[in-house]
Specification:
TIM Barrel, Arc Repressor Mutant, subunit A, 831 residues, 31 strands, 3 domains, 33% helix, alpha/beta
């Protein structure tokens, strides 16, 4: 880091590296490539071969090959930098890498068309570089060719670089000195010692260094020490004195003074403010110059202002297309399908299950889809009024429990009971809460009282509903105990003991009762050993769970995911770029269970979705239909239950939103409008119980003598949105954050019995099946009356077509699917 010669490693398919960063101090360096700098926001000071430039917003400059340059700024700024390897173009233009450019926008009119065009091209290159959609490198290369063409014809200098750059002969000496400083910065390096190494007098060396580096020797040495000290400050818990001494400072006072002069605050305050921030590195291949990367959420705001300047940029919205042709033999051996995805649905809290609107939503879900179990939080919340205590004497009241369970059973839903959270009078720490409507997530003040609560609850259920019924239920112990930022107990490792106590209490009533856990995040399964440690404990303590539970939210980082989730409406979630996250998670989970010889243990995913955020605007869109179709079909029957989080937007984890389409996770909105996600489930429920074939984007099943076909076009989030940048999504426009690709799919259905058939087609698309898009088309009103709700529900049901068709042995189904579209066919013989 910080070497005067920056070795730039280019991707083999691109002769350019693009960075969008916030400049603090970038030390003096040089490289073979040219570098285009565009100040998109703020101001920066640039020094090139000893000449200072104060660059303001929209200023653009080219730094030529081998020009020594450094950058600094004391204010907020965003700089777009493009490092371009001109030797790549040598076959197209003679001695391309020897050309020098004089390209400085601030020497011309601000509206000079040449620079307006260059800014736009650079913004397009940056947009595609960050987004990295299909074939992005081809697009960028075409833009680079256009950019270089403009530079050659408009800004080429007649003087060659080797004649212009008088500093070049000194680079070898400078590189030697800088390398030595980098390797020995922790030692007591002095001006005398470094000058004698080069056989120069201290006076001459001092002038030489400052002339060619733009800063004096001591300032540069301390900047290197500060750079390395910063890493320990943000990434370790070392005390500040140790950090200062370890990195070559004479004492902590000199370190603190330099830090305050550079960052305008003390090291301790800076650590508190920024220790949880992850730097976003757009160019991880480069190991040369260290830039302070800007927050991804700011990048696109400044890029788009240049994209909108010149002509129409519709080419950025061009949709790619892929084609699939599949031959399917309808006579092949049929595999039985259990459709275990129908085993589980969820709502927020137990108390919410008593709300009339929530009950109406559940009735609609059961009527059109039909799940077997329902999971919810908070059976022991104070709102359920189960536990009370007076003079250390506990009392119990199950009135609300009976009302809830009676209702659920009346609509054919069995309880999948999450045992939590903690009643206030039983909590060790009543101030440890979560959600807008508070739930206490403390460990119990007395484990014996917790056991008594569990025992009374289970015995009441058995006495009221019978052992045969209750032994068919599931009792899951707590929720996400791996989440230190949220549900985990304060006492490290306490969950294992808590599980054992709860397990033994329930099993003491009857061994048939089913108890499981640990209800952990997929992240902990993929990146941690939490599950292994839990299972080790259970095996050693004779409390082997009857079933294993886990959650899937495709996060690559908990800090960048669930931590932000706690913030609320504008929290940014960093979603995994792996569109097969769930499949990979299940495979990893099965590997772990195999090691413990638990392959036959039931597996329930008690929560899953594309995001944990109840304010992610993609939740309301057509995207969710294809997301559900893809993940259910690709993982058909590999689990015993898929608990989609959540059935309805009506829950009180956050304050209820006035906006109908606010990004809630539910299948149904607050006011009863069915989203595309609901209709995806409804179509899945029409699949037969015999599997003929399945693959990328399709499934073919059979039921009696009819066939069912589901096809879908899943398009994942693009890299910009996955990286937490929400600048491309708005209340109305929510589809710019995907790698949008059209799909042409042809299914050749072979060996079907000849005859007349009734075809029925269902289609979920923007025009039909997406309530959000219907709402947008009616003007996106903030408030909806009863007539509006009826209108949206009536006009956002899937499109249905019905027709007769004669088939002679083979049938071809050919469809062009727009991004996120889902289609379903039933083919039924006519007798």
């Amino acid at each position: 880091m910080g070497y005067i010669h920056e070795t730039i490693k280019f991707d083999k398919s691109l002769p350019a590296n693009i960075l969008v960063h916030e400049v603090d101090v970038v030390q003096s360096h040089w490289h073979e490539s040219i570098e285009i700098l565009l100040v998109a926001h703020g101001e920066v000071e640039l020094l090139v071969d000893g000449k200072k430039y104060n660059l303001k917003e929209d200023d653009l400059i080219i730094i030529n090959s081998k020009e020594i340059h450094c950058i600094k700024s004391e204010q907020s700024n965003i700089v777009i930098a493009a490092q371009i390897d001109l030797s790549y173009f040598n076959d197209l233009y003679e001695s391309m890498d020897k050309i020098n450019f004089n390209c400085k926008s601030f020497e011309y009119s601000k509206d000079d068309k040449r620079f307006v065009l260059i800014r736009k091209i650079l913004a397009e290159i940056t947009y595609n570089y960050i987004r990295q959609s299909n074939g992005y490198n081809i697009k960028i290369n075409s833009l680079l060719n256009e950019l270089v063409y403009i530079l050659i014809n408009r800004f080429k200098c007649s003087t060659e670089i080797k004649n212009k750059n008088k500093n070049y002969k000194y680079l070898e000496r400078l590189n030697r000195v800088i390398s030595y400083i980098q390797q020995n910065y922790k030692e007591d390096i002095t001006l005398n010692s470094i000058s004698s190494m080069e056989y120069l007098s201290p006076q001459y060396f001092s002038k030489f260094f400052e002339k060619h580096m733009g800063v004096n020797f001591l300032t540069y040495l301390n900047s290197i020490r500060l750079e390395h000290a910063m890493k320990d400050l943000l990434n370790t818990d070392y005390n500040i004195t140790d950090i200062a001494l370890h990195h070559g400072f004479a004492n902590v006072k000199s370190f603190t003074n330099l830090f305050k002069n550079t960052y305008k605050e003390t090291p301790s305050n800076y650590r508190k403010k920024f220790c949880n921030i992850k730097e976003i590195k757009n160019n991880k291949q480069n190991e040369g110059i260290n830039y302070l990367e800007c927050n991804a959420s700011r990048q696109m705001d400044f890029i788009f202002k240049y994209l909108k300047v010149v002509d129409n940029t519709n080419d950025l919205e061009m949709i790619d297309k892929i084609e699939n042709i599949i031959d399917i033999d309808l006579n092949k051996t049929i595999k039985s399908i259990k459709h275990t995805w129908k085993n589980l649905i969820t709502i927020g809290k137990a108390k919410e299950g008593l709300m009339n609107d929530v009950q109406d939503h559940l009735r609609e879900i059961q009527s059109k889809i039909g799940f077997k179990y329902i999971r919810f939080h908070g059976i022991f919340d104070d709102g359920m009024m189960i536990y009370d205590e007076e003079n250390n004497n506990p009392s119990f009241n199950f009135t609300y429990v009976d009302k809830l369970f009676d209702f659920l059973l009346s609509i054919n839903l069995k309880p999948f009971v999450e045992l939590g959270f903690m009643p206030s009078k039983l909590a060790l720490n009543i101030d440890k809460t979560i959600f807008y409507t508070k739930s206490i997530i403390s460990e119990p003040k007395d484990i014996n009282l917790w056991n008594l609560l569990v025992e009374k609850f289970i015995r009441h259920c058995v006495n009221r509903y019978g052992l045969d019924e209750v032994s068919s239920w599931y009792f899951e112990v707590w929720n996400e105990p791996d989440m230190n930022l949220m549900f985990a107990f304060d006492k490290k490792g306490y969950y294992d003991e808590f599980f054992k106590e709860t397990y033994n209490t329930i099993k003491s009533i009857n061994s048939k009762l089913r108890v499981g856990g640990p209800s952990i995040l997929g992240y902990s399964i993929l990146k941690d050993t939490y599950l292994e440690k839990y299972l080790d404990y259970c095996m050693e303590n004779n409390c082997k769970p009857d079933f294993i539970t886990f959650h899937s939210y495709p996060l690559d980082s908990l800090d960048a995911g669930m931590n932000n989730y706690l913030v609320g409406n504008d929290a940014k979630i960093f979603i995994s770029k792996n569109e097969n996250y769930l499949k990979d998670l299940i495979n990893k989970l099965n590997e772990i269970l195999k090691k413990f010889e638990l392959e036959k243990t039931s597996l329930y995913m008690t929560e899953w979705n594309s995001t944990p955020s109840h304010r992610d605007l993609t939740n309301d869109t057509l995207y969710k239909a294809s997301y559900i179709a893809k993940n259910i079909i690709e993982n058909l029957d590999v689990l015993d239950g898929f608990g989609y989080w959540i059935g309805t937007d009506l829950l009180e984890e956050f304050r209820i939103d006035e906006e109908v389409f606010h990004g809630g996770l539910g299948l149904i909105t607050n006011n009863g409008i069915k989203k595309s996600a609901f209709y995806a489930y409804e179509l899945l429920s029409k699949l037969g119980d015999g599997l003929i074939d399945t693959g990328d984007g399709y499934i073919v099943t059979k039921k009696y003598d009819s066939y069912q076909i589901m096809i879908y076009n899943y398009c994942h989030f693009d890299n910009i949105y996955s990286g937490g940048d929400i600048s491309q999504i708005s209340k109305i426009d929510r589809y710019n954050v995907f790698n949008n690709i059209e799909k042409s799919i042809t299914l050749n259905l072979e060996n079907i019995k000849s005859g007349e058939y009734l075809f029925k087609e269902y289609k979920i698309c923007k025009e039909k099946g997406s309530a959000f898009d219907t709402w947008v088309n009616m003007g996106s009103p903030k408030y909806l009356d009863e007539e509006d709700i009826i209108y949206i529900n009536n006009n956002s049901a899937p499109e249905i077509k019905k027709y007769n068709k004669y088939i002679n042995k083979n049938c071809i189904i050919n469809d062009n699917l727009a991004p996120h579209e889902v289609k379903f066919y039933t083919i039924q013989p006519i007798y």
